[in-house]
Specification:
- The structure is a homodimer of 290-residue chains.
- The first copy, chain A, is 39% helix and 16% strand.
- The first copy, chain A, has helices spanning 33-52, 63-67, 70-86, 101-111, 138-148, 166-169, 180-191, 214-220, 242-245, 258-261, 271-287; strands at residues 8-12, 58-62, 90-97, 114-115, 122-123, 129-132, 154-160, 202-206, 226-228, 252-256.
- In chain A, helix 1 crosses helix 11 (271-287).
Chain lengths: 290, 290
């Protein structure tokens, strides 16, 4: 964050029906739709990284959008992660995984670790961090951290998400006081270990669409990196995110997807130019918050 | 369930380091470890299906175990799903996905639907049902159902899981009364639509390790199919699951993985014979409950 002077994470959630012009140029004329679509999706993501990447500190890959293209989609995911890394970006796997311990271990191996096999170790995606769901509780999250930590990767736990449905469970008031999401926040604080910067290796997803919770989230998770989705298309405003950066400039990562990728909608400019301009605008706005 | 006289779901969560003998027979002598391991994993799963499948109604594929082998793992996943289908088994994708609406749509396309692309539609895994996490609330689950329903697929929502950490969030008492998991159960009932049998297309995961909750879960979700993990290796007993079957024999699906697949541990028998015997024992025990 300090080196790039950016807290912006570029969200990549490619829809094969809405790719940048030119994405299909290298697609073979024949072949299974999944393979052809995956080539186009990878080209689209690479172009976005090339355009907007310099204003960002990381790229967040939405795994759902790659998985729906099957094995070729998973190949595209690995290729895009590699391209982002080569562009100097941190790679965040937006996976929202959560499972019982033995399966959580397998997910962490897939995303940040490696899997021992009789044929040699199989490297995972090599993500610098991935998102996880807290619904299964502490043991399930601990299993993820156990694999991620030695790989130098972080785990970003869903605490208070950016969607309207966040109110259905996460904001329910508990008999012992406070809303449910504060217990998820307590798990984050409990599981995280601080590094040299004071920031911990277990962070949290806190939606930018409900900034009224941000100061409280920061108080409950003083050392956590807060991933802040929901700016732009979902209605969140970067100006409301100051509490995330109060302790440390890298304490908040502002993620934006559609508002950067489709910044030219209606504007008539080239998508690359508009994307870079929007990422740069967001970068400056967040950096100005301290 | 009626046709096969079985409520047993065969859990497949392959560990490349612990495969059945012979699984590596068709593995090429050279090639990337991921590709070789995926061939062995697929052979292992096919052998288990062939051995234990006749006593079961479905196969539950743990996606984490395939994802950790990357694109070849996803190919193996599709091959195993296809083999299970050919063996007359329902295919349950144990994915525990949950994301904001637009990404939830993509996950449902990956697992049960199809993705429209300029190169033609890309078929998903073709699962008959998949598991999902409720942490993001109603809108996130509704987006999954919206894709699954027209595909004839069910969504099985995590309600009260089988792991020790289930107590950390799911059992927290709410200010308005009841534990959190009952609100997840209410979402299941709210979102499900009943078919001819009276069973609904949104079901629930309720751990067999906490049978004290089963009667209450059934009361809150009268038409839901309850997927019951945790029998065997995790300590649950099939005899305690009667409330799940009270309304309908297909109202409960007993899933077992390690206790079937590694039934021969210590016994000295062939794994296929032991697996079939254990699946048959479980089938008979559950069927006897009504």
């Amino acid at each position: 964050v300090a080196r790039r002077e950016s807290q912006v994470v570029l969200g990549l959630d490619p829809d094969p029906a809405r790719l940048w012009p030119g994405s299909a140029d290298a697609v073979p004329a024949e072949g299974p739709p999944a393979k052809r679509a995956a080539v186009a999706v990878a080209a689209h993501c690479r172009a976005i990284i090339d355009a907007a990447g310099p204003a960002c500190v990381g790229a967040k890959l939405q795994l759902a959008c790659f998985e729906r293209l099957g094995a070729p989609g998973w190949d595209a995911l690995a290729a895009v992660a590699s391209h982002a890394r080569d562009a100097g970006l941190l790679v965040l796997a937006d996976a929202k995984r959560g499972d019982i311990a033995v399966s959580a271990t397998a997910y962490a191996q897939a995303l940040a670790g490696a899997t021992p096999t009789p044929f040699g170790p199989v490297a995972g995606l090599g993500a610098d961090a991935f998102t996880a769901s807290p619904y299964l509780g502490r043991d399930a999250l601990a299993a993820l951290v156990e694999v991620a930590r030695p790989a130098g990767a972080g785990v970003l736990v869903l605490v208070r998400t950016s969607n309207p449905g966040a109110r259905d469970l996460q904001e329910l008031a508990l008999a012992d006081g406070g809303p449910l999401w504060e217990r998820a926040a307590a798990l984050v604080t409990d599981l995280g270990e601080a590094g040299e910067t004071g920031l911990t290796d277990v962070g949290a997803v806190v939606g930018a669409t409900a900034p009224e919770h941000l100061a409280r989230a920061r108080a409950l998770m003083p050392g956590a990196v807060l991933l802040l989705p929901g700016v732009g298309a979902q209605g969140g405003r970067v100006e409301d995110l100051a509490p995330a950066f109060a302790e440390h400039r890298a304490g908040g990562l502002v993620t934006a997807s559609r508002s950067i990728v489709h910044a030219d909608t209606g504007g008539g400019g080239a998508p690359a130019t508009s994307a870079r301009a929007e990422a740069e605008r967001l970068r400056a706005a967040a950096w100005a918050l301290g």
